[in-house]
């Protein structure tokens, strides 16, 4: 549906986005993550036709939006990082204003406002002035404004920044429902668990370029070919440790009080063997946790841990 082709953006002499290639298929949810200043917001602005690339192109259903932006704008919903609402108007008045911008009017507009208010959980507060709303309520209304015209594709830039946990959970449930209903989604967030929850495919961006992309499992496989197993027992004997080392000669075994950590190749399936060795050495295991790399591990491994301004 939406494709970035060798996108490049310069502001004066500063390169902000460098040769970015991305693709969103119909009904796909795609995450875009990266450190502050990686170029995510500039990329989103080019994908949504708000700014033109220095070079490269964006295509919507095979048609260049740099030459014909209206074809995308009619079916695109954008939830910006900053709240884009009129604080002196009520929730309903805000929705009516944005609905008219999308060309909605009369009964159709009223019907869509009612549907959106229900989806974002603000039916009871629709007549209240927006400046009296909490941060979470404003975020939900911001999302509602982007849904009025039933967009084919939704771009969300950090939609849960700075809100309480309840509002965040409500927004995530709403977005998850939209994805399950077939919405094509491009989602950016600094919260890795949000991207893992919502996205089928993930692009990692750093210093203006895409440095990795794939499914969650494909990205996690970049970090390590190992798995880590944490074993707890009432008593961990040295005989049991030796038996583990003999059984898995390439494994790393570390002991810390009542915790034994075994790191070995993902290709091995060791749990049954470990429990058998424990029984043979009079060790009663109370818990066994298999830990695999997280998306945050991948992110930090690829981009580094140092903060950047």
Overview of the molecule:
This protein is an alpha/beta fold. It has two domains: 2-221, P-loop containing nucleotide triphosphate hydrolases (Rossmann fold), CATH 3.40.50.300; 225-292, Alpha-Beta Plaits (2-Layer Sandwich), CATH 3.30.70.980. It has eleven helices and 14 strands. Helix 4 packs across helix 5 (135-147). It is elongated and about 80 Å long. Keywords: ATP-binding, Nucleotide-binding.
From the N-terminal CA to the C-terminal CA, the straight-line distance is 34 Å
Beta strand count: 14
* CATH fold node name of the largest domain: Rossmann fold
Helix content: 25-40%
Shape: elongated
* Relative strand content: 25-35%
- Mean of pLDDT: 91
Number of DSSP helical runs: 11
Q: Supply Rg.
A: 25 Å
CATH-assigned homologous superfamily of the largest domain: P-loop containing nucleotide triphosphate hydrolases
Question: Could you say how many structural domains there are in total?
Answer: 2
The helix-and-strand class reads alpha/beta
SSE string: EEEHEEHEHHHEHEHEEHEHEEHEH
Oligomer: single chain
Short summary of the structure?
The protein is α/β, with parallel strands linked by helices and 309 residues long.
In terms of topology, how is this protein built?
Layout: E1 2-11, E2 14-24, E3 29-33, H1 40-47, E4 55-60, E5 63-64, H2 70-73, E6 76-79, H3 91-101, H4 106-120, H5 135-147, E7 153-157, H6 165-180, E8 184-188, H7 192-198, E9 201-206, E10 209-214, H8 216-223, E11 226-233, H9 238-247, E12 252-256, E13 259-265, H10 271-280, E14 285-291, H11 295-303
Parallel strand pairs: 3-8, 3-9, 6-7, 7-8
Antiparallel strand pairs: 1-2, 1-4, 4-5, 9-10, 11-13, 11-14, 12-13
Helix pairs in contact: 3-4, 3-5, 4-5, 5-6, 8-11
